[in-house]
């Protein structure tokens, strides 16, 4: 299976749910770095990510494998057969210096497309950014001295070794020992010799001479296999032999021991011998901290070969690159901003742009993260890179990226160039974005409140009016509270599920209760105080599909469920509506407590719902029966509240 198929399983399981329920939803995701474990980051891997988006697809073999998992339905698998990314992408111009929370890439697409590609985007940009950032730190520590990638044998696999060579070269490393990377990316390749090579000869000097004769203009001799000082002396002898044929010894390499004292000794001996152009290359478990220490102590080292610590970014072997939803649009509405509020994992809502401000001399001064629509002075870092799934710019060569980046590094603030200094570059949140953050937090607070519904039982003229055919004595006294509850639901977007007795002229129920609530009669009508302007009546004579019920629930704040017996759940659509809404709390009110209200509460309890009865918005026929019911319900977990307390508590 090809790279095109690389994704996490949960991306696909989520995508199938989207396919079933949110197929027309569009979303925007930001890819950015969350943590400040580095003082800055070098955003890389964007070109590779864009190419992946352009080519992302599923082969027949991929589909057969997914089918074998037994998780995915045929219509979704058919969708995947034709899958192509058709979205829009904005990103920084790779490579770029970035800071935590600043968007590196912004993806706007159908939510299925945007979700499925998350894992591969994170994988590519995480690795590339980690490697480029570590490499630049080492290059900066070297303060103009050459740095070379020696990481092939220590990276986690061939692909990682190639990425190390590639992104470290872009970040300023001068070459690599990785020959395959040299072939693929046209990176200068370098190398010296191994201790095993020296040890394979009877005499150390013989190994030096053999190598020098073979590569008279390219020899760097490894002098610390046995005794470093003696090795330096022998290297000088070889250099003098090379001079006789008009060649110069390129350098010596120190790979162990005390690099500070050994390099000072070697430099002195080389200079004394007139070999002032022979370089000293150091290697052996180096990183930016050790290099910085060596240079601060004036070690006369001209170049550094860095392996494990650069190729594996050993002190921080990952970058906390994340991909988070920042806005969503459903049914052709405007995009709605959203954000994550988890502790230490807060995100910034909506589409954004990053502006970089420079001092007059061109040095970076500060950044502003703004809303995309804001106008701000400074350089925009995010640029539109893809439209309808197609790239808008050609892919730059590695050498072009390197040259461009070396120009950018010149304008890095001096404190950020110092490895041993703690400096926090200023990244500001614009006032408009701050304002939006507070607005979104408020809306999220509402959205994350408990999911509740109101169930309004039989608030009809025949029961609540003194002129009604089955008037419940005293019921008119709860009408004012019913009105307040209706308004409370409206102002807090709480769904109202209302039952409505709906009888034909010869219903069996009339033998016990008398004629009431004949369909179309005044007595059957709900009182105005319990009715919203927008509602949907659900007949008990018709069974609606799940999709139709979902549509009704999404469009109507009040659903009136007709019934011709006491229990609202006799309507074949009631259970489906409750399952779809799946409320955490159900508030119940209406009439009569000891008949239709009782039936609903009992059924809700059987189905495991959390039930709250609004005591002063229900009315019973028998006070004694009410007391018995309340006692029973309370023992089974039903809670009770009054209208004033509920309004005061709020939602």
List its traits.
single chain, 651 residues, alpha/beta, nicotinate phosphoribosyltransferase, TIM Barrel, Rossmann fold, 7-stranded antiparallel β-sheet, 7-stranded parallel β-sheet
Task: Please provide a brief summary of the model.
The protein has 25 helices and 26 strands.
Task: Give a description of the structure.
With 651 residues, this protein is an alpha/beta fold. The protein folds into 3 domains: 3-131 and 317-443, nicotinate phosphoribosyltransferase, CATH 3.20.140.10; 132-311, Aldolase class I (TIM Barrel, Alpha-Beta Barrel), CATH 3.20.20; 449-649, Rossmann fold (3-Layer(aba) Sandwich), CATH 3.40.50.850. It is built from 25 helices and 26 strands. Strands 13-12-1-5-3-17-18 form a 7-stranded antiparallel β-sheet. It has a 7-stranded parallel β-sheet with strand order 22-23-21-20-24-25-26, with helices on both faces. A 6-stranded parallel β-sheet has the order 7-6-11-10-9-8. Helix 24 (623-635) links the parallel strand 25 and strand 26.
């Amino acid at each position: 299976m090809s790279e095109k198929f690389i994704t996490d399983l949960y991306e696909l399981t989520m995508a199938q749910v989207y396919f079933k329920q949110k197929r027309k939803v569009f979303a925007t995701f930001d890819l950015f770095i969350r943590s400040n474990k580095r003082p800055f980051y070098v955003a890389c891997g964007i070109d590779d990510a864009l190419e992946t988006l352009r080519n992302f697809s599923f082969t027949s073999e991929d589909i057969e494998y997914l089918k074998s998992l037994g998780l995915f339905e045929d219509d979704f698998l058919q969708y995947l057969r034709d899958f192509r990314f058709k979205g829009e992408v904005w990103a920084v111009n790779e490579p770029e210096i970035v800071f935590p929370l600043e968007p590196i890439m912004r993806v706007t697409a159908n939510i299925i497309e945007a979700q499925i590609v998350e894992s591969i985007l994170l994988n590519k940009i995480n690795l590339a950014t980690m490697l480029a950032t570590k490499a630049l730190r080492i290059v900066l520590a070297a303060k103009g001295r050459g740095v070379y990638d020696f990481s092939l044998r220590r990276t986690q696999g061939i692909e990682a070794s190639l990425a190390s060579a590639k992104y470290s070269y872009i970040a300023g490393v001068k070459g690599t020992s990785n020959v395959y990377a040299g072939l693929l990316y046209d990176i200068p390749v370098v190398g010296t010799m191994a201790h095993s090579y020296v040890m394979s000869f009877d005499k150390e000097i013989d190994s030096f001479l053999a190598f020098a004769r073979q590569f008279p203009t390219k020899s760097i001799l490894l002098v610390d296999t046995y005794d470093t000082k003696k090795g330096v002396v022998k290297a000088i002898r070889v250099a003098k032999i090379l001079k006789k044929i008009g060649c110069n010894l390129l350098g010596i390499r120190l790979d162990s021991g005390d690099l500070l004292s050994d390099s000072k000794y070697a430099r002195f001996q080389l200079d004394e011998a007139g070999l002032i152009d022979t370089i000293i290359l150091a290697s052996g478990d180096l990183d930016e901290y050790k290099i910085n220490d060596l240079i601060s102590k004036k070690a006369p080292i001209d170049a550094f070969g860095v392996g494990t610590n650069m190729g594996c970014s050993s002190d921080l072997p990952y970058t906390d690159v994340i991909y988070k939803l920042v806005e969503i649009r459903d049914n052709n509405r405007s995009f709605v901003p959203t954000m994550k509020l988890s502790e230490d994992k807060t995100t910034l809502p909506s589409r954004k742009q990053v502006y970089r401000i420079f001092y007059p001399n061109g040095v970076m001064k500060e950044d502003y993260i703004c809303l995309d629509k804001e106008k701000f002075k400074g350089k925009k870092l995010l640029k539109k890179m893809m439209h309808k799934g197609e790239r808008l710019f050609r892919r730059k060569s590695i050498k072009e990226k390197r040259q461009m980046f070396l120009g950018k590094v010149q304008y890095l603030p001096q404190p950020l160039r110092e490895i041993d200094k703690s400096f926090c570059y200023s990244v500001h949140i614009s006032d408009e974005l701050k304002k939006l953050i507070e607005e979104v937090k408020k809306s999220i607070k509402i959205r994350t409140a408990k999911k509740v519904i109101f169930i309004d039982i039989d608030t009809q003229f025949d029961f609540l009016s003194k002129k009604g055919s089955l008037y419940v004595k005293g019921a008119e006294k709860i009408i004012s509270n019913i009105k307040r509850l209706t308004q409370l639901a409206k102002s807090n977007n709480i769904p109202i599920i209302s039952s409505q007795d709906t009888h034909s002229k010869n219903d069996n129920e009339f033998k016990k209760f008398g004629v009431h609530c004949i369909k179309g009669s005044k007595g059957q009508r709900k009182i105005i105080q319990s009715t919203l302007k927008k509602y949907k009546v659900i007949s008990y004579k018709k069974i609606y599909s799940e999709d139709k019920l979902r549509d009704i629930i999404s469009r109507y704040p009040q659903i009136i469920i007709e019934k011709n017996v006491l229990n609202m759940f006799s309507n074949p659509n009631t259970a489906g509506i409750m399952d779809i809404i799946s409320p955490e709390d159900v508030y119940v009110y209406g009439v009569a407590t000891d008949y239709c209200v009782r039936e609903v509460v009992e059924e809700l309890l059987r189905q495991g719902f959390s039930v709250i009865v609004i005591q002063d918005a229900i009315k019973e026929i028998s006070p004694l029966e009410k007391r018995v019911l309340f006692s029973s319900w309370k023992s089974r977990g039903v809670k009770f509240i009054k209208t004033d307390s509920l309004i005061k508590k709020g939602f």
